[in-house]
Amino acid sequence: MPEAPPDFGSLVHEYDRHRTGYSPALLDRVLRGRAAPRVLDVGAGTGLAARDLAPRARRLVAVDVSGPMLRACPVGERALAKGEALPFRAGSFDLVTCAQAFHWLDAEAAYREFHRVLRPGGVAALWWKYEAPGDPSAAAADAAFERVVGRPAPTTSLETEPLPGLPGPFAEVEQRVIPWSLPLTVEGYVGYHASRENLRRGAGPLREKVLAEMRRALEAMHPSGRFTLAYEQRLWLLRKEA
């Protein structure tokens, strides 16, 4: 039986309240050499990347497949569309971004569309922010999932594995890993896990028990309710031929 499509719309509250954005160093690298670009943010969700990109863009268009997510995005123009079928003319944008979302797309079709809507010399920037390997708080959350569900916590494979099918139609590919540490609260980090579609799918009817066990484990580790989490931000820059 085929897996049900993701239901991002029902996660808007958790997503908007508990998701955190991306480091200034990452955004500076994405925008380097591009003054006031025309930006298309694919898989924009509630605008975590778009909020920081918009003040530095001449034009920003946020695209998502979820109407509720898109309505929560506070900046830019908005378009309800798939990343594999973008409703824009060829060469419309200087920069296409896709933050924490490319793993939901068909890579080959998305590469073609990103390449098509970019001007010559434009760049597609794809990135993920994920807990650094060995971070103790992240390990405690994963262990809590496994205690409740009886199998390892779900991950997003493209966070750490090579992107499939590169360079595809692109002339040049660059990869960078940009570390970042972020102060969090236990409630905020558990809320982040509550916003994860992969966790909801993996936990099924045990989702609330998983979240309660994560909260218990993290509160035991961090009695103050506050801690710092180490992240890695994995960035791919795909450049179209000039």
Can you offer a commentary on this structure?
It is a single chain. The protein is an alpha/beta fold and 242 residues long. It has a domain at 8-132 and 155-181 and 230-239: 3-Layer(aba) Sandwich (Rossmann fold). It has helices at 12-18, 24-31, 50-53, 67-71, 107-117, 136-149, 186-194, 197-203, 207-221, and strands at residues 38-42, 59-64, 77-80, 93-99, 118-131, 172-185, 226-239. Strands 3-2-1-4-5-7-6 form a seven-stranded mixed beta sheet, with helices on both faces. α5 (107-117) links the parallel β4 and β5 (118-131). α1 packs antiparallel against α7, α6 packs antiparallel against α9 (207-221) and α7 packs antiparallel against α9 (207-221). The chain is elongated.
Helix content: 25-40%
Work out the strand percent.
25-35%
- Which regions contain 5 or more consecutive residues with pLDDT less than 50? none
Tell me what the CATH architecture of the domain at 8-132 and 155-181 and 230-239 is. Answer: 3-Layer(aba) Sandwich
Biggest β-sheet description: 7 strands, mixed
Rg estimate, integer Å: 18 Å
Give average pLDDT, whole number. 94
Shape: elongated
CATH homologous superfamily title of the domain at 8-132 and 155-181 and 230-239: Vaccinia Virus protein VP39
Secondary-structure blueprint:
Layout: H1 12-18, H2 24-31, E1 38-42, H3 50-53, E2 59-64, H4 67-71, E3 77-80, E4 93-99, H5 107-117, E5 118-131, H6 136-149, E6 172-185, H7 186-194, H8 197-203, H9 207-221, E7 226-239
Parallel strand pairs: 1-2, 1-4, 2-3, 4-5
Antiparallel strand pairs: 5-7, 6-7
List keywords for this structure.
26% strand; 33% helix; alpha/beta; single chain; seven-stranded mixed β-sheet; 242 residues; Rossmann fold
